[in-house]
Amino acid sequence: MTANHTPDDAPVVARVVMTLGDDVSTDAIYPGRFMATVLPSETPQYAFADYPEFRALLREGSMPAGSALVAGSNFGCGSSREQAASTLRGHNLVVVARGFARIFVQNAVNLGLQVVDCPEIAASAGDVLEITADLVLNKTTGRRFAVQPLPMARQVIMKAGGLIAYTRQRLLARQS
Amino acid sequence: MGMTIVEKILARATGQPGVRAGEVVEPAVDLAMSHENAALVINQFHEIYQGTGLEPTIWDPSRVSIIFDHRVPAESAKTATNQKKVRDFVRHHGIAKFHDVRGDQGGICHQILPESGYVRPGQVVVGTDSHTTTHGALGAFAFGIGATEMASVWTLGTVLNLEVPSTIRVVVNGRLSEFVSPKDLILHLIGRISARGANFRVIEFHGETIRNMSTSGRLVLCNMSVEAGATSGIVPADEETVRYLREEAKVGDEIAAVTPDADASYNQVIEIDASRLPPQIACPHTVDNVKPVDAVAGTKIHQVVVGSCTNGRLDDLAAVARIMKGKKVAAGVRMLVFPASWRIYTQALRAGHLADLIEAGAVVMNPGCGCCLGVHQGALADGEVALSTTNRNFQGRMGNPKSEVYLCSPEVAAASALTGVIRDPR
């Protein structure tokens, strides 16, 4: 799973590995003391560095690519540090939240971290989610939750494969 | 129907007669700022050019600014190496608005941009720092972006696919009481609307309290607007803005103000009576956990921090020095002071404020972000409590998840430093 969901994509099935509350800040996702580490290839090692539960899952290898984090509203609030998106992208996680902070969601789209804005989502660790462009089905509880689609303007960037690829396209279009 | 100030700025920046909230636009950028994270921007910038056969070229180096502030002087070999990489890049691309670790030009990016006259009313300003909202105090539309987005701006000179934000109009009237400052006002607003109360929207500040406020105070309001989730805070430029730019930033050329239309459409209107506001404090571990200081008076503190891009300006240092002159920091309390720039440091030195603070027992540090984000200087022990004039108190913010951070005004910080417990300065 390398891109955010668009209406053309097949459903994604993801197992919830951890649930989090409201206002999870970028300081929680990627603590400031690791900010001298910037490259997307190096940031995954510090994901949720101060969350023993997350670190234990990583150690045990029980957070395979495609696993989902389920969070409350305003996920990723605070700093603009892109490491917060790249560190989760590096673990190939899907973030399903009741809402996201602006800069975080922008960084996620730009880097191809899958984020699902699902204002009513309710799920527990271990639940299995089926995610489509407009709906999350919690297959464990049978409940369905509407997805707030990302704006078309963002979908253009996702479809291009992220902002680097999209900017490159635009740059080359200017040259011709 | 008329336009909000942000709609007007984006109309100009896209060469259109008008734009509306919700439209997607690609505005030209007037100023693009980064700090140490320019190291990542440089990496992404080169990735964009990979395989194109083109020489990586910044669209307009005169519109790019890079300022070292997050870890100055470098706290590790890794940071030192990143800073060196940035210096080499700056030289290669001819970036003149570069501020290195130097006493004659350095400081925190959100103080350097205003005091250097880099930001003007009506501009579109982007920065790879969430507190880029600060520059709305000069009537610009200024907002934080990620490093990859900045690499895109360096390449093309525009922000791609920006949704025009809607606007919350905040009207503040009444005179602030003695020992109550713009910090208390913005903490009150964040507590009232919550940490996501302004998500994806802009806060436009109006009213007599704002008109009578110095640019220094307006910078505080806009700085912390992001803590309510706002894309930006903005104060329409007026005579005070022109005064600041002429007298303090030494701007000689023409200054054109952009103001919102009287019949602009707002998403929400919030009114605040400033005259009734007591000193405020944001309690652990969220910035919107705001109470009157009285509610937590008596809480024991171990470290007091004065400074940062929020409250490290000359009037902040003067207010703290006035309260502390001739007195002593309480035993068992460490007081750290980080002026926002070396210019401010020098002004506070000449005015005698720094001597007053040092004689009271404070440690005056070099300008920079310091301990605000837990990367450098002033770490807290397990179980310790910090009282700080900075802008964030998320768990672990100052480097230790087992510590607590309260956020307050310089006046509350000073009064509390003297007693070792949180105290209302009145």
Description of the structure:
The complex is a heterodimer of chains A (176) and B (426). Chain A contains 6 helices and 7 strands. Chain A has 176 residues and is α/β, with parallel strands linked by helices. Chain A has one domain: Alpha-Beta Barrel (Aconitase, domain 4). Chain A has a 7-stranded mixed sheet, with helices on one face. The mean pLDDT of chain A is 93. With 426 residues, chain B is α/β, with parallel strands linked by helices. Chain B folds into 2 domains: 268 residues, Aconitase, domain 3 (2-Layer Sandwich), CATH 3.30.499; 140 residues, Aconitase, domain 3, CATH 3.30.499.10. The longest helix of chain B has 17 residues. The model of chain B has no long low-confidence stretch (mean pLDDT 97). Chains A and B meet through helix 4, helix 5 and helix 6 of A and helix 2, helix 3, helix 5 and strand 7 of B.
Q: Would you give the CATH topology of chain A?
A: Aconitase, domain 4
Mean pLDDT of chain A: 93
Q: Report strand % of chain A.
A: 15-25%
Structural class of chain B: alpha/beta
The ordered H/E elements of chain A are: EHHEHEHEEEEHH
**Nearest-angstrom radius of gyration of chain B?**
21 Å
CATH domain class name of the largest domain in chain B: Alpha Beta
Poorly predicted regions of chain B: none
| CATH domain topology of the largest domain in chain B | Aconitase, domain 3
Helicity range of chain B: 25-40%
Oligomeric composition of the shown chains: heterodimer
Shape, per Cα inertia axes of chain A: globular
Strand order of the largest sheet of chain A: 4-3-2-1-5-6-7
Specify the biggest β-sheet of chain B. 5 strands, parallel
How would you characterize the largest beta sheet of chain A?
A: 7 strands, mixed
Largest interface: A-B, 47 and 56 residues
